[in-house]
Design brief:
2 copies of one chain form a homodimer.
Chain A: H1 2-11, H2 18-25, H3 28-34, H4 40-61, H5 66-76, H6 79-88, H7 99-103, H8 110-128, H9 130-141, H10 145-151, H11 154-163, E1 169-179, E2 182-191, E3 194-201, H12 204-220
Antiparallel strand pairs in A: 1-2, 2-3
Helix pairs in contact in A: 2-8, 4-5, 4-8, 4-9, 6-8, 6-10, 8-9, 11-12
């Protein structure tokens, strides 16, 4: 478990019960191969831990009304945001994956990374209480919330921009390739019938987001 | 603030900062009349407190997988469930309402009651920490979770029951009456073209739920 102590030092938390840390990192593919329990129930718990920690941060540090806070919170706890936080500590290298999942690129799959990071929060919460989990969120996630807020607004930004010009936009998935559990999608965003941008992603949504980003970059030039 | 100390004794928690309790009970209609801040931001926070407290309870006490736990959690933190918990301590009598809202029956409006109860949880959390809020949920909400789970399943139960008989059902709102902010709806549920049940409620959803309940009661006879 030497890797695990490296992770503990990165998150500045030492588990009293190391098996909780092990559980948090156990993806279902690894659990299946080794007849273990996976991190899925812990992720259910960690999801709520993250929600409350981010809510407390926003309540204490933002003066906006609850409608705006609710929208911000949703963006700060979503899969994309979790992947940003995870990338800062190379979190994905600690996840325990089955061979098949590893071979098909599971270590870079956004859902797997986000779920394991939530499970880690659930584990810290069970092991050390809410305040320890809150510290983790404040120290390792909050410094990157502006990046997280920026990262996912491309479709909304493009929408708003073009609405003021009374233009309508739509997205099309023009290509789908790869194996069933490791697909790549290509999206095009059109304004009226003109191609505005193209994007590639591991999900339809991600491809569309990238297409919107691409359109905005072209606009800015 | 004599009423407030009665509430504190019911929830077995004494606020260090009484203004947090006052804030939790301040509906926007009262806030508007008295130029005060309303409980809406505190409700944003309390919503996440309830979610985590229920998640911890379910994680520790249920062995089911995360999919089932997620569905259960949704039912245990929804407006209907909050109204069941609130009714056990006559919580609505402590809410501070504006005159207009009071005159039009706001004290019995489910959304107002649920929101204030969430705000109360947010207030306990800020004042005493997560464990105090968790105790409140365990002592005052958890004893009624079976009632909460049962209370809202009528539409799903009816759906499942009739699906196995290969029947199709649909709902119709047949009557709408009352003032804009105090409406009453009547719903009918049909199996094929036969009337199975009728229900009345303060929202379309509530009326449909009551209609489903009525249909199930008739079936049981």
């Amino acid at each position: 478990m030497s890797d695990f102590s490296e992770l503990e030092s990165k998150i500045n938390y030492n588990f009293k019960n190391k098996s909780l840390l092990f559980l948090a990192l156990t993806h279902s593919s690894y659990a299946n191969e080794h007849s273990l329990v996976s991190n899925e129930r812990l992720e259910f718990l960690g999801d709520a831990v993250l929600e409350l920690a981010m809510s407390k941060y926003l309540y204490n540090n933002e003066t906006q009304d609850e409608g705006i806070l609710t929208k911000k919170r949703a963006k700060l706890v979503c899969e994309n945001a979790l992947n940003i936080y995870a990338s800062k500590i190379d979190f994905n290298k600690y996840i325990l994956l089955g061979h098949g999942e590893e071979a098909t690129g599971g270590r870079n799959r956004k859902a797997i990374i986000a779920d394991a990071l939530e499970a880690l929060l659930g584990a810290v919460f069970l092991d050390g209480g809410f305040d320890k989990a809150l510290s983790l969120v404040l120290n390792l996630f909050v410094p990157y919330i502006n990046e997280a807020l920026k990262n996912q607004d491309y479709k909304s930004i493009l929408q708003e921009k073009l609405q003021s010009e009374k233009r309508s936009i739509h997205y099309e998935i023009v290509k789908e390739s790869g194996l069933p559990n490791d697909k790549t999608f290509e999206a095009i965003v059109y304004m009226d019938e003109i191609i505005m941008g193209r994007g590639i992603g591991k999900s339809k949504k991600e491809a569309e987001m990238e297409a919107a980003k691409n359109a905005l970059e072209k606009e800015a030039r």
